[in-house]
Amino acid sequence: MERKNSGLASSKKKSPKKNAGNPGKLPSREQILEFISSNPRHNSKRDIAKAFSVSGNDRAELKSLLRDLINEGLIERRGKRLAEPGNLPPVTVIDIIARDRDGGLLAKPANWNEPEFGKPPLIEISRKKSSKAKLAGIGNRVLARLEPKHGQKGVYTASIIKLLERKSGEVIGIVRITDNGQVRLVPTAKRQDELEIPKAMLGDAKDGDLVTAEQLKSSRHGLKQARVTKVVGSLSSEKAVSLIALHANGIPHIFPQEVLQEAAAAKPVTQGKREDWRDVPLLTIDPADAKDHDDAIYAKPDPDVAGGYIAYVAIADVSAYVLPGSPMDREALLRGNSVYFPDRVVPMLPERISNNLCSLREHEDRPALAVRMVFDAEGRKTKHTFHRILMRSAAKLSYQQAQTAVDGEPDEKTQPLLKTVLTPLWEAYRYLSRGRQNRQPLDLDLPERKIILNDAGEVDRVYVPDRLDAHRLVEEFMIQANVCAAETLERKKQKLIYRAHDAPSLEKLERLREFLGSLNMSLARPGNLRPMHFNQILSKVRGTENEELVNQVVLRSQSQAEYTADNIGHFGLQLTRYAHFTSPIRRYADLIVHRALVGSLGLGEGAITPAEEARLEEIAAEISLTERRAMQAERETIDRLIAAHLVERIGDQFSGRINGVTRAGLFVTLNDTGADGFVPISLLSDEYFIFDENRHALVGEQTGSTYQLGQNVEVRLAEAAPVSGALRFEMLSEGTEGKSLPRSRNTNKKPHNRRPKLPKRRRKR
């Protein structure tokens, strides 16, 4: 691609035509917009100030001018960068949709808001030969690096970084052979119809096998047909439910032989030049069923500061075993993170590394990267230092075990630790909590359910674990350590991957403001908005009938946290710099931060390499995607387990709460199991319902009968599909009284009360 004369395509800044070299004179709005458009990679506030020689007090005026442009919707903030609305970021996810007349691949952004931004831009896949480009085809979703095409506004050239999803013609499902010999494919996706498999295209697949299949083109009536391409496994095998999620989401779960060989050859790290911390009584506090332990903590009063405390956080030194570019490193980046299912864990690293050599086992020598933090009596951190150490965990405790001991009922293991280790830890936490209270991070109350399986791998019970001070203590120590990592690397001018959480978008805030207005509540304007303002709203509804509703709507107004090479801060935690450092056994982002610390502080082998530094933006995008992939797979597995648990209870009545409202119907979460199911709008009543997006409600056109997010309802289970995890309910509760909403007031123009098309499913045999 020719870039020599292209201000759009070049990664270098394009100089402004006017105002350069005129200190004290602000650029015009038009000049700023032109500069942002011409410099997609270097257009932060600092870049603009430097390009137009804005300094001193004029920087405040420039900041105000940029804020006005953002509020007017002429530009938008993307981390530190500014961009025209609708312009694409340098690294993004795209869908390949067609070929041009010369056979080249064309794509569009995967998440494009056409009503807001209009027709999506054209993306041409680079014709440069690469293995990834050769594997890509129509129907693939890919992660790509984009460059605006010179002289053609709204056109980009894409270089493929990573293939994300298989082609759209491929289906994953379970083979079912009926009594009369017909072969069906029951898809694992919730919104996909059942397919027919001709016997000649069944291959070696048998009844109950999980397979991949290729959908065939056909003009015949009836079910569409498919051909089996691969047998993945059998539903009768152990851990079959999570196997579906692994394969459906493309999650690697079998380590290559060279990775296992490298892990097997690894030898325990000796002290060498490491500091000897084996006499420091560091504790691991984890869930009772945890198999690997990557963090340990300790605290003691500061002898030099009245009311002050010194806190220690030691983290497993994975960088000592997983070196950049090694087979284990390549596989860890491919996985991005460990994935946790009720019936198994798919680790990022081989077991010999994850729960042996790196795991901070009780009374065993282990290498670690540690941070020593000093806090004053107000819970403010005054200084910190990092150390590469050899440690020996004094004890392995569960959250419940530690909490019970501090509450006055120690057992044989915690009794000797109570006065010297546990009590100082809790006292230090009380001081650290003062700093947290001053910071006022976002405080949503959304309990998470946990599934317990029996020996047969089926759901035994579902419960909500108690939220203990022990959980909060460990969480606060980890947050402080993560902040220290980011601060140290910034001070050393070392590139890193941040854990970032942007402020809510203006569009989401406006919807939230309109919703709160319906409850006679207000929200601060965007320029002054902080998590404390959300907390004030949440405190007002605590203990009221609207508590669950408001918590859900506030949650949905928030941006999604992600990994990025640009620091935009963490809005939810109310922190200006934040990096994941505390879980390198299960998160690749933390391993990168460890390597950056090792290199910038001169702590020995395992430092970040120049090649890694050059790819941080790509790595951040990749691991953000693997994190979302893991979350989806975990959620799908829980859905399938719960659906299998409820399949024998079709026709039973359940209590639940509406947790989603769409034009097509309602999503309801059951109170006892946390299972989510769908109520089609056609099964509410014979009345015509209108979707009120601002109120998150369906409202009857004639009577005003209302079904709203957060509302308690009674439903009957009509269908359960274990293969896809889908549940369908019938509504038994009447809607609440409300004001009728004529169709003319519906802003979405296409409300409907038609019966949605439901996938054909069979009951579990």
Rg is 28 Å
Strand order of the largest sheet: 3-4-5-7-6
Number of separate helices = 18
- What would the average pLDDT be, to the nearest integer? 85
Domains, number: 5
The shape, in one word, is: globular
Terminal CA distance:
57 Å
Strand content: 15-25%
Q: How helix-rich are the residues, as a percent range?
A: 25-40%
Number of strands: 33
Q: Based on helices, strands and strand pairing, what is the structural class?
A: alpha+beta
Q: Major β-sheet, in short?
A: 5 strands, mixed, barrel
| Uncertain segments | 1-15, 17-24, 745-765
Give a structural overview:
By secondary structure, this protein is an alpha+beta fold. The chain has five domains: 1-85, Arc Repressor Mutant, subunit A, CATH 1.10.10; 91-165, Nucleic acid-binding proteins (OB fold (Dihydrolipoamide Acetyltransferase, E2P), Beta Barrel); 170-237, OB fold (Dihydrolipoamide Acetyltransferase, E2P); 260-495 and 578-631, no CATH class; 650-745, OB fold (Dihydrolipoamide Acetyltransferase, E2P) (Beta Barrel). It is 28% helix and 25% strand. The protein has 18 helices and 33 strands. β27 and β28 (676-680) form a beta hairpin. Residues 1-15, 17-24 and 745-765 have low confidence and may be disordered.
Top keywords for this entry?
5-stranded mixed barrel; globular; Arc Repressor Mutant, subunit A; alpha+beta; 5 domains; 5-stranded antiparallel beta sheet; 25% strand; disordered N terminus; disordered C terminus; 28% helix; OB fold (Dihydrolipoamide Acetyltransferase, E2P); 765 residues
